[in-house]
Amino acid sequence: MGERKYFGTDGIRGRANAHPMTAEVALRVGLAAGRLFNTGDDRRHLVVIGKDTRLSGYMIEPALVAGFASVGMDVRTFGPLPTPGVAMMTRSMRADLGVMISASHNDYADNGIKLFGPDGYKLSDELELKIEAMMDADLDEGLATSNRLGRVKRIDDAPPRYIEIAKQAFPKRLSLKGLRVAIDCANGAGYKVAPTTLYELGAEIFPVGVEPNGTNINADCGSTHPETLSAAVKRYRADIGIALDGDADRLIVCDETGRVVDGDQLMALIGLDFHKRGRLNGGGVVATVMSNLGLERRLKSEGLTLERTKVGDRYVMERMREGGFNIGGEQSGHIILHDFATTGDGLMAALQVLAVLVDTGKPMSELARQFDPVPQLLKNVRFTSAAPLADATVKAAMAEAEAALDGTGRLLVRPSGTEKLIRVMAEGDDAALVKRVVEDVAGAVKAAG
Fold it and tell me: Which residues, 6+ apart, have CB-to-CB distance to 70 below 8 Å?
């Protein structure tokens, strides 16, 4: 695969109004993707565009629209809508392409462009590279004739349509009546749809992070700052707290005491509930190499597997599609429920947690302990040499560590995808041993430069 110039692991992302997150690059994305997906037959081609609440969305969106329209693609804009909602609407409106303008959980100064194919899944690496190869063409290349320009319309009913789809993911036989729910929408894309969905299902809601002003997205709120949700749960004596991130594709939960529940416990909770109902496909759950060993053991005790992938929700999704799994996700709270969505969806995942809460009548604090996590330690080591992991002393230290952990834990050593860091992670039943092996391996990596 060639060196990527624009696209990273999750679309194009960067500081707003600095390369590559400028109006010019957005225009080039529209021109290139429009030319690639506009196959030249007589049918009108359609692209749908959603965004979160960042100030820079007002600059990126019109530039994309201009690019698409000038190569003859019709455009429908949604305004603020969660990433999974854009994926869903791409499929539902039979569009050729879907675009989400968001930098997810980053602060307002960043922005990003994410592309979805007509099936609602993130575009493949191959297609992204094709678009990238076309982006540096002359700006007047491949333009439509003046009578073939695209038409542009704002679609106002995308949020209510997404709400209806979300509500169908909640079991008909249950209701949220009498439940007190604190919800933190990170002043982001879910600020209207998430509270409305819970309210329409009968919950008494206490919303925070629902007053976006263009610069307060993810600012001391949302899934990256769970202390705000935790405080809200205590203040409103809520039964549960739910926090989304800026584009609402990830979920963090707090129990009624304000304690944070991570993605691993949520995957166990939803996975085991699906298993009990005979709804779990694939005989297990897909997660990344970072997920806790406790999750793997808990699933194993029920005869289920934990399939591990590289870090990144696109790899989780690929493995789910290959193996026919319907639940997967990351420890960080990206949870993919393939029965309902083609990408991580914080609101859909929250509804499954709420369903178990209502159905069992147990407090969230009890449901939150699906397994005892084993001690896990992560150390990041900066390096300068070309290939520290190929060094003989590093290899020897890793082999020694693996032998020491044999049967009681595991070691994971991997380079960061974005920085010059080697991540050394170990976990196991003996916390002191875990600490020792991480320090030994990290020390060897440091010494190797």
Answer: 30, 31, 34, 143, 144, 149, 150
pLDDT tens digits for range 338-364:
999 999 999 999 999 999 999 999 999
Distance of CA 258 to the CA centre of its chain: 23
The candidate with the shortest Cα–Cα distance to 401, out of 446, 445, 438, is: 438
Active-site residue, selected from the candidate residues 104, 223, 230, 332:
104
As a whole-number percent, the residues of the chain with pLDDT over 90 amount to: 89
User: Structural domains in the chain?
Assistant: 12-156 (3.40.120.10), 161-260 (3.40.120.10), 262-350 (3.40.120.10), 376-448 (3.30.310.50)
CA 99 from centroid of its chain's CA atoms: 15
pLDDT in tens, 4-47: 789 987 899 999 999 999 999 999 999 999 999 987 777 889 99
Is 124 among the catalytic positions? no
- Please give the Cα distance from 219 to 419 (Å, whole number): 24
Q: How far apart are CA 89 and CA 306, in angstroms?
A: 31
**222: pLDDT confidence band, cut at 50, 70 and 90?**
very high
> Which residues share a beta bridge with 382?
421
Mean pLDDT of the chain: 95
Torsion, Cα 424 430 436 441, to 10 degrees, reads: -30
Q: What is the pLDDT of residue 3?
A: 66
C-alpha dist (Å) from residue 118 to 36, 94, 144: 13, 7, 22
Alpha-carbon distances, residue 35 vs 38, 136, 273, 290 (angstroms)? 5, 13, 45, 39
